[in-house]
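Quick one, tokens below:
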């Protein structure tokens, strides 16, 4: 056979010979020009080069068959993956961490924490909703492979409705999408406009707020200043407390207990601790001792500070709770005030200033709640 770089392909059993001519010896088949089965394959330097990828392959190896899913088949595959990778509790794809029980059933982080919190409230062992095996932070582990797989699945943009991998969806929705919801740059002086990003520049050219008079703007700015004043007042109060002569702080650990009532209720209490040469105890309760807090979606924690020492005179103190050094709970500082005496040694229950019920579930799911207490004694 003349050496002219022809491509020899062995006929597969049961394959059609359409578009192929028989070789001189009746064995190998020469590829017909323009054959669809061999499109994109070229020979260079005694080997074959895939025109679509540019990768050189062995001359003797049979060409690889590429399998490409049709659009309908790809959709069905995604649907099947959704059902395989979804959380067994909420039946939705996890948005962050994925936990699995000892038998491999998947739970998103929110549902996993919620199950542990519910079990704490009902004084039961938390179990997997699928196989009823025990679950806890020590028994369950994260499934990084599922987290990665979920991040690569497509999801619809809530603005333009185009599909993007979940790992890049947030960036698209906040930075790239031309239909994302935006606000006018003159919002700071009271412009209420909201609209898609592609209309923003046209609106800002026509916005009337830059041409408002100073008197009109003063009313808008005064409302905005009120919220800033409240924040500034809080931090100024904290800085003032830091200048007091007698200041004490300690890490406290709330431990869960049950009441001795006929219907037991969950409450938390710290061991006794000493601050400012006095002995104290902190107590906390869920939903203000609601009868069945496990049936409520909204969950709160409130606490009280109790003076256990006997004092010769009234002890006026300000105090606040903050998150502990090794905790990630979000607590907004709120200053409490009380005059302690032998007859008034307990404060009223005050809400623990956490942001929402999700943060409360994180605390309930933990074995103990670790916080930091500051007490400032007010000198007369």
């Amino acid at each position: 056979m003349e050496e002219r770089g022809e491509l020899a392909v062995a006929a597969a059993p049961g394959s059609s010979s359409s578009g192929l001519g028989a070789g001189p010896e009746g064995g190998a088949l020469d590829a017909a020009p323009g054959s669809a089965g061999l499109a994109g394959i070229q020979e260079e330097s005694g080997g074959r080069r895939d025109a679509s990828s540019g990768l050189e392959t062995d001359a003797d190896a049979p060409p690889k068959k590429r399998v490409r899913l049709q659009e309908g088949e790809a959709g069905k595959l995604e649907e099947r993956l959704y059902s395989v990778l979804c959380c067994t509790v909420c039946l939705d794809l996890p948005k962050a961490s994925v936990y699995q029980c000892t038998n491999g059933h998947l739970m998103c982080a929110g549902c996993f924490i919620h199950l542990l919190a519910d079990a704490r409230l009902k004084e039961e062992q938390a179990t997997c909703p699928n196989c009823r095996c025990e679950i806890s932070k020590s028994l369950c582990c994260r499934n990084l492979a599922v987290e990665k797989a979920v991040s690569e699945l497509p999801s619809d943009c809530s603005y333009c409705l185009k599909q993007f991998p979940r790992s890049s969806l947030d960036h698209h929705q906040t930075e790239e999408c031309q239909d994302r919801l935006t606000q006018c740059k003159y919002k700071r002086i009271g412009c209420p406009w909201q609209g898609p990003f592609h209309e923003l520049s046209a609106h800002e050219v026509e916005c009337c707020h830059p041409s408002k008079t100073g008197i009109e703007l003063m009313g808008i700015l005064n409302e905005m200043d009120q919220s800033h004043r409240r924040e500034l007042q809080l931090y100024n109060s904290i800085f003032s407390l830091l200048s007091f002569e007698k200041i004490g702080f300690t890490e406290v650990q709330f431990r869960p207990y049950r009441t001795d009532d006929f219907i037991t209720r969950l409450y938390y209490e710290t061991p006794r601790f000493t601050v400012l040469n006095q002995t104290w105890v902190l107590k906390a309760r869920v939903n203000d001792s609601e009868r069945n807090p496990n049936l409520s979606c909204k969950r709160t924690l409130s606490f009280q500070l109790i003076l256990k020492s006997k004092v010769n005179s009234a002890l006026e103190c300000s105090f606040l709770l903050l998150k502990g050094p090794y905790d990630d709970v979000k607590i907004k500082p709120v200053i409490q005030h009380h005059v302690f005496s032998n007859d008034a040694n307990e404060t009223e229950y005050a809400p623990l200033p956490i942001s929402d019920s999700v943060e409360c579930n994180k605390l309930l799911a933990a074995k103990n709640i670790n916080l930091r207490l500051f007490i400032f004694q007010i000198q007369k």
